[in-house]
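Model it.
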Amino acid sequence: MVADLHSQLAAIVGEANVIPESEARIHYANDQWWYAVAATGAGQSISRPQIAVRPARTEQVAAIVRLANELRVPITPWGGGSGVQGAANADQGGIVLDLRGMQRVRAIDTKSLTCVVEAGLACRDFEAMLNERGLSFTHYPASAEWATIGGSIAARGSGVLSTKYGKIEEHVLSIEWVTPTGEIVNTPNVPRHAAGPELTQLLVGAEGVFGIVTAATVKLHLVPKRRAFGVYAFANLADGVEAGRRIMTTGLKPPVLRLYDTHAASHSLARAVETPLNAPTMVMMYDGEYPELVDLEAKIGGDVCRELGGTELDPAIGALWWDRRYVFYYPPYAPELPSIWGTIDVVADFEHIEAVYDATTTAIRAACPPEFNLSLNPHFSHWYEWGSMIYARMKVPTGPAKLEEAKALHDAIFKAGVEAALDAGAVINDHHGVGLRLAPYMPAQYGDGGMATLRQIKAALDPNNILCPGKLGL
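Modeled.
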């Protein structure tokens, strides 16, 4: 069976682009979900592909999907492998479809400031190419070195500039995608239309379950001529949240608006910017084409903070944070085994966000026995006109030696945090997706009717359950 699959895939993409099982199980052993990493380290990888393939054209993707339907072989798309929820793991075996063979920039429209780009191009490489032309994609995820355009779309990802420029769904105008039965579809070339429902958004955040994104038309921006930073310390977290609410509900548009609670400010933020911090701290940045407008926005944003008792700190702290914005994804900031780590990132409106913070952080801390010395660094890192999200990064320095016991501790912490967030009025995830980690909480999030609807869509699009079986809680 595997030998036959190998030869048929080679006929589609060429022998050099087929990776046999022995190599595939090494190269695609895990994404960056803690349990996937830990299981691989213990010699028990949850990703067990029979084979991997790297297509170079959309037509090849479609042919691979049709072949998989004929043979009833599962397919798991793979971007940069930087996801943290487990979506990219081939836990049902089958084919890993590595889209990094598709990295072309097909067209740039300098009048409309749009670009057609293939799904396998890494965000960092795309941004560097655009910057040479005075342009920017403005999607800067922490994992930009690895995260691909397609992976960002699949996970409904976000970047550090999201508060002004939006999450990935607001960058995408249209997509080219392959259905689970192997047809190639192009959605309408702009998202603002009344030609029926917006099909593009069905694929955004679907994690490959409803189809495989092969290319997208995305918005571009000019590289800003001016960036202005502001950093403010608050007497309490509630004042900082209120400052953020007033900024977001009165029309100001800071690309960066990050509020760290006292622990996160004095630990993770202070370490990154090499400055002692001992109170809830907000980092703001404004940017744009018109320096005088940028400076005025920054002044008004600062006035809002001062009205709420915010103490202005050296704006150079913000500039240093900007220069080091990716350090948290690398050692010594990024955790490594034998630690247990993960981020419970939930999102809520302003009516509920403080209660969500209190309930979620309290539940996370209570779920971990004190002997494991859990640390929790929460901050509010992406803001909207209607609310914000909480990025609660937890770490257990050394977990139980046995994998099953370590996983039980990890799962208990996440269960406590996610359920507390739901009970307080939050949505279970803001920008990391669902994957395998949050799949158990999808019924609580969507309810019986919502899950039934998702299952009906899945069954209609993917009658043979070929794409990512079991993901998204389906």
